[in-house]
Amino acid sequence: MKPLTWGYSTALVNEALASNGLSQFLSELETFNSALLRLDQLMFLLEDPTVTKSAKVSTISDILANKTSQLTKLGILFAVRTERSSNLVETLQEIQKKSALHSESWMETGSEPSSSRQVARDRMIGYTKFYCDYTTDGNELDKVEDEIFGFARAVEKNSQLRWTLADLVIPVETRLALVNDILKNAREITKKLSRYVLLAGRMRDVVSALDEIAAEISRERGRRIAEVRTAVELTTEQKEKLIQNLTQSEQIPIELRVVVEPELIAGIVLTVGNKMLDTSFRSKFSEMSQELYDAV
């Protein structure tokens, strides 16, 4: 299965365990897998490249309506949306096998199988996507995003904490306990998402990973994060003007995140997705220093 689906199903199974619904999930998934193997017409529809993903999702959603739990429906529909149709049966069987082998202690004592950084990132995004689907309260998701962003800034400002969380020599249990302690007053979803950064695989930059989680929640809510680093706090009028201009240029609602960094001296550093604008005096000073060095 794709790393996105792996991360999504990991979150799903942990929620099933927490709600004592794992047995029901496994039973319903097995029933659906058996039906797929028996119903040639349904398999033909799912494997037909001329049928759109949305049509396939709609069809499966109608079939599952009022017949399965929310968790089972979420897991199957995500696989239909994400996986290649030709791999769907194999993927659902793999999710079933993985789920059956899961244990309650896994999230506190072990990590995902060794992987590349890209695979680890995709697992983390998939894990985040599950909670965006599972959590129906938009205000709750907004608060989780705020907490994740705030945790990222706290880790960013504390170099010792940043390196400790990323140090694979330190037992994962110790690092998970540290996250739990720091986030003891945070929401449970915030804690789960933050812990998974340490469990997803080869994730060496914890701050970047946390920022990606916040950005993914924003995307799932139909917005895009614009981060502004500034030497002084912006006024309400400046923030509103910036949001208005960015929303117009990006053609998507903008969520502004302001980080005050006095060491910038003046100006701002604006980041939207993979685009960055640096007008800070610190940046200009560095450029002037380099020009003087080259001249000498």
Summary of the model, kept short:
By secondary structure, this protein is α+β, with helices and mostly antiparallel strands. It contains 15 helices and four strands. The protein has a four-stranded mixed sheet, sandwiched between helices.
Biggest sheet statistics: 4 strands, mixed
Q: How far is it from the N-terminal to the C-terminal residue, by CA?
A: 57 Å
β-sheet strand percentage? 5-15%
Relative helix content = 55-70%
Mean pLDDT: 82
Shape: globular
Order of strands in the sheet with most strands: 2-1-3-4
Q: Which radius of gyration do the C-alpha atoms yield?
A: 22 Å
Low-confidence stretches: 103-109, 287-296
Number of strands: 4
What does the secondary structure layout of this molecule look like, with pairings?
Blueprint: H1 3-18, H2 22-38, H3 40-47, H4 53-64, H5 70-82, H6 88-101, H7 106-109, H8 117-134, H9 138-157, H10 159-166, H11 172-182, H12 188-199, H13 206-220, E1 224-230, H14 236-250, E2 254-260, E3 268-272, E4 275-278, H15 281-295
Parallel strand pairs: 1-2
Antiparallel strand pairs: 1-3, 3-4
Helix pairs in contact: 1-5, 1-8, 2-6, 4-5, 8-12, 8-13, 9-12, 9-13, 11-12, 12-13
Report on this structure:
This protein is an alpha+beta fold and 296 residues long. Helix content is 67%, strand content 8%. It has 15 helices and four strands. A four-stranded mixed beta sheet has the order 2-1-3-4, with helices on both faces. It is globular, with a radius of gyration of 22 Å. Residues 103-109 and 287-296 have low confidence and may be disordered.
